[in-house]
Write a structure and sequence with these properties.
Elements (H helix, E strand, L loop, with lengths): L22 H13 L3 E4 L6 H16 L2 E6 L6 H20 L2 H9 L7 E4 L6 E4 L6 H21 L4 E6 L4 H4 L3 H9 L6 E6 L2 H9 L10 E4 L5 H14 L6 H11 L3 H14 L8 H25 L2 H12 L8 H6 L5 H13 L3 E5 L2 E4 L4 H9 L1
Helix pairs in contact: 1-2, 3-4, 3-5, 5-7, 9-10, 10-11, 11-12, 13-16
Bound molecules: adenosine-5'-triphosphate (ATP) and magnesium ion (MG).
Magnesium ion (MG) binds next to α2.
Length: about 375
Amino acid sequence: MTRELNPFNFGDLAVDAGFADREQELAELTSDMVNGQNVVVFAPRRYGKSSLVWRAAQQVISRNRVLVAQVDLMLTATKEQLAAALAKAIYDDIATPLFRVRERVSRVVSGLRITPVVTIDPQTGAPSFSFRAGHEHADVDATLQALFELPATLAAERQRRVALVFDEFQEILAIDSRLPSLMRSIFQTQPDVAHVYLGSKRSMMERLFNDANEPFWRSAKQMELGRIAAAAFAPFLAERFDAANRRLPPGIAERLLAATGGHPYATQELAYALWEETPRGRAANDDALGRALGRVLRSENAHFALVWERASRVQRLVLQALAVEPTTTVTAGEYRNRHDLGAPSTVARALEALVDQELLRQVEPGHYVIAEPFLPEWLRRRLS
Ligand SMILES: Nc1ncnc2c1ncn2[C@@H]1O[C@H](COP(=O)(O)OP(=O)(O)OP(=O)(O)O)[C@@H](O)[C@H]1O
Ligand SMILES: [Mg+2]
């Protein structure tokens, strides 16, 4: 008998049947991409930004013939690397559907101040582009500028619409802090192009898009991704179990989702472990869920241990307090005393640092929750 494959996945993009819900966000985002509306999508890490935009892109490409070029700024450390990634995306996603094979490369590189080295993969015939370091700043900027203009120009030539996606956009500041103003000056002349910016560091996104002194100020509609509601996540989980010869009773799904809070990555991670703990043809039960949680905590142990090691004494106390006694008023005197947290200003500093590291999420003033779904349980087990 061939071994069945686990139907859950965490870490890669969620695609096809592995993608749950996000109906409303998808509808909105696909309309925006078709309409040329700029959007910034922000959410904490691992909430499914890339998966959502990937799915939206697939839809508008096939249904609306929109061309979508995507660049991941996490993979580009310098302006030269950014230029190379842009050239590649424009080649793959814009020039390839629009032009004949022989003209594609020249359509991408011909107007550039710096001509990239083009390498052809002998197996696939696909080109890649690289720009050597050491060119004059002005030449690199001019090259980037031309690349930022190119998608709109090429698409317009064939009366096609285009969307340009920047994943991990907050990294733009690390590449060169003057890039936002260069990009903005070009993008604002492209009303037909939908620019989509994804970002995980909320404060950074707020600075880039909500600060009146920043070039991107109010240049894009904001979409904040939340967790996935249990009403939508539970049927998805049950269906995935069914399709892989296991059953997930509603009560167990409910407890699984209570443990993850509908955090997309954490939910897939725990469901993966639960499926492993459930024999073929059987229904998942409480025992299996308990063992699954144990598995997940063991595999997250190194990560949580590092978090703990890096935390200051007060930060540790705050995390422990919130793990054993969640509260809406962490700075209240009684709560601080009970958990030995110290002076309000000390606690405030610890809270700020923990929010900065995305370990805590501020729900409202004074109301903080631990952002990592399995960290509270890990902390509780450590204490007992
Ligand atoms: N719509 C979804 N349905 C089911 N699972 C999802 C969904 N979106 C995300 N996930 C789960 O979350 C994981 C992370 O998704 P993704 O990489 O899209 O998130 P992200 O916000 O881009 O993360 P990062 O901050 O690391 O870039 C996926 O591997 C998958 O397990
Ligand atoms: Mg991502």
